[in-house]
Amino acid sequence: MSIYTSARALRALFPVLLAVAACSGGSDPETSTSEGGTSTGEESATEAESTSAGGETDASETDAGTTGEPPPLDPVELTVIKEVTFYDGYAETVDEPVPEGVIRHSNALYATKLSDEELASIQGVLTMRVYIGALCDNYDRIGGVFLSLVPKGEETYTPSEVTRFEIARFITPFMDMNKEPDVVPYSFDLGNLVPTLTDSALQEQYDFWVELSVFGVPYAANTEVAGCAGRNDVFLGAVYLDSNSDAAPQAFDFTTPLATYVAFNNYQEGATDELGETRKTIEFTLDEDTVETQLVLITSNHGANQGGEEYIRREHYVGVDNKLVHQYKPGRDSCEPWRMYNTQGNGIYGPSPKSDAAWQSFSNWCPGDVIDTRIIPLGAMDAGPHEFVIEVPDATFVGGEGNFPLSVYLQGLR
Questions:
Q1: What is the pLDDT of residues 8-26, one digit of tens each?
Q2: Domains in the chain, start-ordered, CATH in brackets?
Q3: How many other CB atoms sit within 10 Å of the CB of residue 19?
Q4: Which are the contacts of 236, defined by CB distance < 8 A and separation ≥ 6?
Q5: Are 165 and 407 in contact (CB under 8 A)?
Q6: For a pLDDT cut of 70, what percent of the chain falls above it?
Q7: Could you tell me if 318 and 3 are in contact, meaning their C-beta atoms sit under 8 angstroms apart?
Q8: By the 8 A CB rule, do 281 and 388 touch?
Q9: pLDDT value at position 73?
Q10: How confident is the model at residue 61 (pLDDT cuts 50, 70, 90)?
Q11: How far separated are the first and last CA of the chain, in Å rounded?
Q12: Of the four listed, 32, 53, 235, 308, which is most buried by Cβ atoms within 10 Å?
């Protein structure tokens, strides 16, 4: 049964431009907030109190925390990737130097390992900032951040051979590197990953590597952007993590990837259950009953050909065990908040502002914006086999073009 029928140097890193990026709005915070997520942790309201024999509070005992709770930690900012340069995604991998601690998997993918000290500094609240700077690609491209669990002590790895999650996705704006703003900021809430990153058993077995990906090409910019003739560098990128103890960490015992950036369409073997239908089923098994369970889902619609899926909003249906658990139609009310970052003339924004209705008539996402990370609560689940299904029944993929890259992972508390 169909589930839907049942219901820049990176300029951003310079202090002045970082401040401009932060104050200019960047990605709308609401767009990067997970939908429907719930925290199972509770914040203690108990305060440490102790009194001296005379009934007065002993300041030294209070400072020490007689309840046994440590004092709140200071907020931290972790520089994960300070600056990397991306190159033509179709070209042979370059051998240009990379920053210390960073490895280049390809022209479009870099990775760095989080240190024990960095992992130990993560607190209950965790957010991520990504900055993309303009070089010689003036088109809108897809980018993302991944977390890989790599066997302890390895100096490098093959991404397809390790446990890997997509934890954030974004779209670059149309940028002319000679115009400002020439950097775009993105922000993501990663609070649901705190239990994974701070899991001592996982830390004993794995190193945690953060990957930044942007697939760009310079061909148009080579002739359209001054200073780009003959160049193959396409973007600059940086990643920061911010953490504080303003809230208790969420409680999950496990985080399991079900699909990581896999093809999802109706014309490609393996990308659908049945050719001609845009429906993908993924089976999974729970070893034990859970009291809380959730899916974390990322999809985006691509296909820029005439009548392509990029320009048509479609209803998406998500089911678990033949029950509809979530329904959504991608797209913002308006893409005007990101117009300022689109400094290269293009056919999406045009020369003048569009009405909300105009944007809603065609845009699945905005160049310069994040792609939503959707958190779908499932509640308690029984041990045993289960089935995840995502379906977009109206998608057509004219000419056998386009794709809805799919990432989804499962989290649970036993």
A1: 444 444 333 344 344 444 4
A2: 8-21+32-37+74-247 (2.60.120), 251-414 (2.60.120.230)
A3: 10
A4: 8, 9, 10, 11, 83, 84, 85, 86, 131, 132, 133, 134, 135, 183
A5: yes
A6: 83
A7: yes
A8: yes
A9: 83
A10: very low
A11: 30
A12: 235
Residue range 115-125: average pLDDT?
97
- ∠ Cα 403 407 408 (to 5°): 140
Secondary structure E strands in 159-205: 163-171, 183-189
Q: For residues 194 and 191, give the distance between their C-alpha atoms in angstroms, rounded to a whole number.
A: 6
Rg of the chain, C-alpha, whole Å: 23
Q: What pTM did the predictor assign?
A: 0.85
Quick one: DSSP state of residue 3? G
Give residue 287's pLDDT band: very low, low, confident or very high (50, 70, 90). very high
- Quick one: DSSP state of residue 368? T
Contacts (Cβ under 8 Å, ≥6 apart) of 27: 170, 185, 186, 187, 338, 368, 369, 370
The H or E element containing residue 223 is helix 219-224
How many other C-beta atoms can be found within 10 angstroms of the C-beta atom of residue 322? 11
